[in-house]
Amino acid sequence: MNNQNDSVNQNLVELSTFFVGDALCGMDILKIQEINKLIDMTTVPQAPSYVLGILNLRGQIITSIDLSKKLGLGTTNLSHDPRNIIVNSKGEHIGLLVKKISDVVQADTTKFEPPPSNMAGIQGNFFTGVYKTKDKLIGILDVDKVLRLEETK
User: What CATH number belongs to 14-152?
Assistant: First the structure.
């Protein structure tokens, strides 16, 4: 076995990319349980404004949040066919509503750069870094931080 290839493979990650407002964001595809269309949901009284509601997905209760609203970019337009990215955080399933899904990008984690203090109007502390492709800048979303901040509000 070639150890050099092993170390190169360990640095590769597949990023599922998506748009939050006009910002191109990504996260490790392994953190995603599934991506689906917005399903009918039940509103939750007195929930924070970014919580769209809860939905029953094959027997699992999912809290859906509008990622644009959570990140301070307004609200996601529900008439433009948005998607829910279902992630598992601390044993709870959360739906992250995004404007649209983009490509899966294979990225070398050694080429991630520190996040800027502000990226497309989003505070840099929501990102673990940025990844530059030939023609795009992808903000690597720190899903745990986004959801952790949810608990404190």
Answer: 2.40.50.180
